[in-house]
Amino acid sequence: MRRILRLCIGTLLATTASCTDKPGAGGRVHHVWQHQTGPEEAAANQQMIARFAAGRNNFAVDAQTIPQGSYPQSIMAAAMAGRLPCVLTVDSPMVPAFVWAGHIRPLDTLIDRQAFAAIAPPALGQYQGHIYAVGQFDATLAIFTRRSTLAQIHARIPTLAQPWTRAEFDDVLRKLKATGRWQVPLDLGTREPNPNWWTYAYSPMLQSFGGDLIDRKTNRTADGVLNGAPARAWAAWFHALFANEWARRLEPDDQSLMRGRVALAYTGNWRAPDLEKAFGNDLLILPPPDFGHGVAIGGGSWQWAVSSTCTQPAQAAAFIRHLISTPEIAAMATAAGMIPATEAAAQRTQRFRKGGDWRVFYDMSRAFARPRPATPAFTAISNAWYHAARDIMDGTDPRDALDDAADAIDQSIADNNGYAPAAEKTK
Questions:
Q1: Which domain holds residue 332?
Q2: Is residue 160 located within the same domain as residue 257?
Q3: Which of these ranges, 67-76, 196-205, 241-250, has the smallest mean pLDDT?
Q4: Which CATH number belongs to the domain containing residue 107 in this structure?
Q5: Cα–Cα distance measured from residue 399 to residue 356, given in angstroms and rounded to the nearest whole number
Q6: What is the tens place of the pLDDT at every residue in 65-95?
Q7: Under 8 Å CB-to-CB from 422, ≥6 apart: which residues?
Q8: Are residues 154 and 243 in the same domain?
Q9: 250 exposed, middle or buried (CB, 10 Å; 0-12, 13-18, 19+)?
Q10: Chain centroid, CA 181 distance in Å
Q11: Cβ–Cβ contacts within 10 Å for residue 405, how many?
């Protein structure tokens, strides 16, 4: 049985208390579901909800936290039972699927679009011309290393304006391997078995090669895009990382750079606090390479949405407006170390403001983030890509692996009538 942690914030109390479904005579309950997060983000969410509830007479927020692994299944079960909460979190690439299934409603029919104008595009869950979800923050992947490590091989330190090229990156890996100091020089994070991670982490590299997961003009086919010449070039390079022993297929943990097993680690900004503590001023945070078509990193994290069955949409909209206010975004960024979704909020933080030591993450996100395909077919795309990329890593012929992935995606789209809008499903 899944564990659900329940938090009730009373009208005048900014503290956790036991709660019931009825806050008092004439009162109202505002139901919120969120995925389980780390302790810092969870505490920040609790405080954010308390600030929203404070001063609202006869009103309570009932926030339930559900383990992330079972969250999608919980949403589906609640939707089938007609028991969706008023407000819920949605992982950015799943927004179109939630729209297609009829679970969430457009935010821009509840809130003036001007309220979203300052939000970074990756933090907006958009589909078919509407905004359906909005996030307070984003995350980004980067290459972490040590200044002293690159000095050993006299490597150029790349910048956002002049990232490494593919040739430079390969040369760095080759030289680091040749020192004999590291059995493999790069931790690429391929130990993670989650398909969504593989899509988030490695499909931007495919895009930087000039390929993609699907034809973004129509979102109706992957054929010729996922299995085209640029994609095959990416596949050959990706396989060579492991064949050349520049990367290990399965690192035992996420401590490879900290423990000196590798020289470079491709990982997220959430690792910065530990690495900063370990290496101090010797730590370098670098953009991923430009493989020929610009640097690309995954964009979009967890976002907030309003359910289609919400009976208090005006109050739900007020809650959304509260959480995307500058003070709340800044408070979350400060507490959880995530990239704030607006410049105004970034300037209220010590780490992400201009001149801050984590400003590089904010700048990379704004410059290089690319969304995953905005289609209800995302789960099929992600699963197909995951299996193809793992097979390529392990030596399967790239053409076969990519052809199979493209076929699987196109079949899913065909089986679902092109994921037509709800109004067209019965036509």
A1: 5-139+300-357
A2: yes
A3: 67-76
A4: 3.40.190.10
A5: 45
A6: 888 777 878 888 888 888 899 999 999 999 9
A7: 100, 102
A8: yes
A9: exposed
A10: 34
A11: 26
